[in-house]
Amino acid sequence: MDLNHSAWRKASKSTENGGDCVEVAAVTESVAVRDSKDPDGPKLILSRSDFRRFAETLKGECLPS
What we know:
Blueprint: E1 9-10, E2 22-27, E3 30-35, E4 43-47, H1 48-62
Antiparallel strand pairs: 1-2, 2-3, 3-4
C-alpha cells in the first residue's frame, strides 16, 4: 500500500518537542498508524472498526481514576 501521499495527522495532545506520539492517516477502508519520530519506518494498517476499538481502549486507559 502506497502511503507516500497520505495526509498524516498528529495527536492533538502532542507537543512541539515530539515525545512519544503517533500519527494516523485515513486510507480507503483502513487507518494507517506510524511513529511520528520515524515517519519512514514501519506502519500499522488497521481496519476502521479495529482502529476505533483500539482508540476507545486507549481512552479508557488514560482516564484519571
